[in-house]
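The material for today's practical consists of a large collection of protein records. There is nothing in a record beyond a sequence line and a structure line. As an example, a complete record with its sequence and its structure tokens follows:
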Amino acid sequence: VRFVITIPRARNAGAMSRATLSAWNNFVAFATRHENQHKSIYLQCAGEFVAKAMRMTAPSCFALSANIRSQFDAAKRACEKRQLAFDRRDYGRVVGLSLFAVASGR
């Protein structure tokens, strides 16, 4: 599995004030940690599904395939719930980032 995580880049960091640059760098560090945690959650979900799928048995290949597909769909839904729960927990940290205070003039 290969993940591509896209993090914003400043168009002209050299034109930023010291305070804005510091706030920007803190935001980029936060976004990187946040997105890497999403990656980690997806990898955990995948590992759990694979372990479960490896233990599955059925009377036929067709039945096994159907069972795996059903369990995979359930695992995807459960993983998305984990992702949303993580985002909800992290939301307070996002709005508290200094970049947003600098941008709003606070």
Notes: Residues 62 and 68 are 10 Å apart (CA to CA). The helical segments are 18-55, 61-95, 98-104. The radius of gyration is 20 Å.
